[in-house]
Structures are given as structure tokens and as C-alpha cells.
Amino acid sequence: MKTIMKDVEFAWDESGRGHALVLLHGLPFQKGLWKPQLSALSRKFRVIAPDLRGFGESGLPVGEPSVDAYADDIAALIELWKTGPVILVGHSMGGYIALAFSRRHPKLLRGLIFAASRATADDDETAANRRSVAARLRTEPPGFVAEAMLPRMASEDNRDPHVLRAIRALMDPLRADGIACAQLALASRPDSSALLSALACPALVVAGEKDAIVPLSEAGIFAAGFRKGRLEVVEGAGHLVGWEKPAEFNAILEKWVDRTL
Question: Which residue, 12, 41, 80, 104, is CA-closest to 261?
Fold first, then answer.
């Protein structure tokens, strides 16, 4: 499905009826990352997976890059979809956007689910690397981004070339403009750790046991920061916890959402 909003085209996939779950993909993926969740969770819920600005089929990013801008896009789409308050599910970068959303649009939230994400800001080295990647994307095709990120997406035990090819396909279409904008937005995002205890809505943090990007120790601290936080660990999963172990991930989400609503 597609619409024009703020002079930008936005695309999303949607299935099911009932209480709304809005799924925000990570970098450098697109809405297809959530196919296993769209299929399974739509039996009980209305599940909506948008392409963020500059990714998949959505239009080009404009203006100053920021996680707040992505959050405001999602808020406008929620109003368009007429869902009422939603449970927002964010994978990695999608989780950073969900935190910005919780600051700016708390009345639109029933709950928050974070998959392989964190509350802290980038350290200086990571932020500098993001800005370097954005600069390279002005003159180079974006294939180098996928090449650098792909080895860290699945569990270290999962080196099956078929799996890695499937993960690489989830990144297409790789769009230099969208990735560059996202890298700059993430490099400048604030540390949200102090925000967590003030959030009234419940939160679930789902971590992959073998995530090479967000370690379990950090996921535990993240979950403990919420007033109503819970940590669930998916054994054997890497950074793409919802894609690599969909049955386990979906069962965790369904159980938690049933308790929350």
C-alpha cells in the first residue's frame, strides 16, 4: 500500500485486524524484514510494516536528518491509518526511532517492543564512522555498506551461505540517499537512557543470545531501565532475531502483547 504525505510517497505492508502493531525495520533493511511477523501475528492483530523514508519503496528523505523526523513520519502515518494508540516494534535503528516516538508522541503508544536495540547514543568512534559512511555514499555505490554489515547480522554459528544470501536480499533495494540520511540521523541521536524510567507504557526488550552488535549485558541494562520493562532472550539468535528465529520471536511477542492489551 502507498500514500503521498508531506509531498513524499510512503509504502507499507499490512495484514490482520484488531489492535495495531507497527513494525519499524533496521538499517539497511526494508519492510520485507518483517514478513515472518506479518504472516504469523496478523492472525490476532493488525500488523503494519512501513518502509522508512529513503528505504524500500518510500520516497527520498528531505530536511535535516534526525530520528525525530522518522518518528514524526510514523506518527502522521498512524493518524492516517486511524489505528488509535499502537504497540511500536523497532528492530535496531527502528528501536532508536521508537524511543524518539515515545518522547514526542506518548499518547499514540500502548507499548514498546525493542528487538536487538539500545537506548544509548553512539560513542565518538561509532558516530564518526557513520559520518564517514554517509560521506562515501555521495560518490560511491552503497554495496560496501552491505558488505560491511552482512557478516554481523546472523548468529556467529550460522554461516550457511544460503542464509547469508537471504539476509543480503532483505537489504535490497540498497539506496545510497536513504542509508546516508539514516547514518547521519543515528550519529546525532541523543542518549535516551534517562527517558526510560519516565515512560508510562510497558516495554519489552528482545535480545538475540549471540547478537554481535548489541550484547546481552547491554540488553539487560536497557530492559531494567524501564518502569515496566521485561527482557526476553532468544537462544541461538543473532542481530536479526525476528528473522533468524521467527517462531520463538513471534511467540514472545504474542504472549507479551496479550498480557499488555
Answer: 41
pTM for this entry: 0.97
Strand 86-91, strand 20-24: pairing: parallel
CATH classification at residue 57: 3.40.50.1820
Tally of CB atoms within 10 A around 171: 23
Which grid cell is 24? 519499524
**Domain residue limits at 70:** 2-260
129 — pLDDT class (breaks 50, 70, 90): very high
* Residues 218 and 95: beta-carbon distance below 8 Å: no
Helices 93-104, 176-187: axis angle to 10 degrees equals 60
> How far are the Cα atoms of 88, 144, 206 from residue 75, in angstroms, in the given order?
11, 32, 23
| CA 242 distance to own-chain centroid | 11
Alpha-carbon distances, residue 88 vs 48, 73, 115, 202, 203 (angstroms): 10, 13, 11, 11, 10
C-alpha–C-alpha distance, residues 95 and 24, integer Å: 7
Backbone angles phi, psi at 29, to 5 degrees: -95, -170
Q: How many separate domains does the chain show? A: 1
Mean pLDDT in the chain? 96
